[in-house]
Amino acid sequence: MAIITNSCFTEEMSNRVHAKHPHASLTDARLQTRASSLLVTHVNKVELDDDLVSIHQYVLTDLAHAVMLTRTGIFDAHHGQKMVKTLLSLRAGDTASMLASKPEVGTLGLQIENYLERELGPRGRDIQRARSRIDQKATNWRLINRASLTEVIQGLVALGSQILETAEHYAGALMPGYTHLQHSQPTTIDHYLNAHYWAVSRNLSRLFEAYDRLNLSPLGGAAYSGTSWPIDRTATAHYLGFDRPVYNARDAGFAALDMGAELAGVLAATLSGISRLASDVNYWSSSEVGLVRIHSSLCGTSSMMPQKRNPMVLERIRGLAGSAVGWSASQLGVIHTATSTDVDQSYIHNLLPSQCFETAGAISLLREVIATVEFDLSAMQKSSGQHWSTASAVADPLVASHGMIFRHAHESVAHLVASHERAGVCSSDLRADLITDPALKEYSHSQIQEILDPKSFVASRISSGGTSIEARDQLATIAKTDLLAMKNRLQHRLNNVERGLKQLLKMHT
Question: Where does the sequence pass through the membrane (predicted)?
Answer without folding.
Answer: none
